[in-house]
Amino acid sequence: YEMEACEKDGYGTVIEIELSDNTEEENYDEYLESFRLENIIKKYSDFIRYPILLPVEEVQPKEDGSEETETVVKEKTVNTMVPIWKKDKSELTEEDYTNFYHDKHYGFDDPLKTIHFQVDGMISYRALLFIPEKTPFDYYTKEYEKGLELYSSGVMIMEKSPDLLPDYFSFVKGLVDSEDLSLNISREMLQHNRQLQRIAKNIKDKIKRELLSLLKKDREKYEAFFDSFGRQLKFGVYSDFGANKEDLQDLLLFKSSKDKAYVTLKEYVERMKEDQKSIYYASGESIEKIEKSPQIEKALDKGYEVLFFTDEVDEFAINMLGSYEEKEFKSVASGEDFLDEEEKDEIKNVQEEKKDMLEKMKS
User: Fold this and answer.
1) Could you give the CA distance from residue 291 to residue 326 in angstroms, rounded to a whole number?
2) pLDDT by residue (tens digit) across 30-84?
3) What angle do CA 231, 176, 37 make, to 5 degrees?
4) 16 in any annotated domain
């Protein structure tokens, strides 16, 4: 582009854009259409603090009172100017957040949880995050793209910044706006930007705290969340060689033999029997099939609570955890912990007999 000084009435800058000729692949004339221009402005510059005026044609009745109409050109302000995330939370209602969620096409559902916060410090930013109510239809496909919208002073610089979210929180929708980020920063530079890395860590910690708070204060809503996205948290436990397992272990829920209700690992350990040394679990296609196994009957007869693993991800996650609060996970299929002394002695005698038989065969 070229820049030059000029004489004009009033303040402002004139930008002249010359469009290329249309080709078989590209129709550049669409950038002359008001509807197309308005969509572009709303997508990238909807929240800058100055009004953007667009001349649009409107058909209206003539002023002479006749039934004839005329086409007039009027200036229309197309940008919002004051973004919702820059408003005080006390001014906003749940309906305001839900309308914004739908306007941004984050999902057809309503947000289960809204996280709106501001950070001031070495790097300052505002964030507006949403945890969806339901799993997006393409969530567990290659087509799904994670990431938050990234703004610099209200101007979008990236539609989806994947580096702002860890994979196990990839279901979170929303945006981040920081005045400390350059408008001209490239996607490649963003990947190694320390400011962005600091923001990403803060966002990860904030999401975790909000989920733990939801688990504590609104169990029903958290269980609904876990039904939708619990599998992703379990993936997060064993991915990256378990690097994030301690961050996620207190967010996990499992159905248990106690009322077949969800239980956290912390809740399980707190109500373990005094003589119990391990966290017991049983795996199967369904709770109904698990309950029919003879091993679980022995565990229940001994008064032990058993976690039900019906998702193929469960054992992967638990094997990566290894233990929780120094209590190892153990499958009831091993059976050894549920034998009484008489049964243990009987097994020991059989093993001794087999050992003697093998010795005689060797000699």
Assistant:
1) 27
2) 998 888 898 898 888 888 878 888 888 888 888 877 778 888 888 888 887 788 9
3) 110
4) no
Whether residue 190 is contained in a domain is answered as yes
In a domain, 309, yes or no: yes
Tokens of 118: 């501001």
At 26, list the tokens.
Answer: 């590209």
- The model's pLDDT over 73-112, given as tens digits with 9 standing for 90+, comes to 888 888 877 889 999 999 999 999 999 999 999 999 999 9
Query: Cα separation of 29 and 22, whole Å?
Result: 7
Task: Say if CB 335 and CB 301 are below 8 A apart.
Answer: no
Q: Are residues 225 and 88 in the same domain?
A: yes
Q: Provide the residue type at 82 as one letter.
A: V
CATH number for the domain harbouring residue 177:
3.30.230.80
Residue 329, amino acid: F
Torsion angle of the four alpha carbons 215, 221, 223, 225, in this order, in degrees rounded to the nearest 10: -100
The CA dihedral of 53, 59, 62, 63, to the nearest 10 degrees, is: -30
Phi–psi pair at 43, nearest 5 degrees:
-70, -45
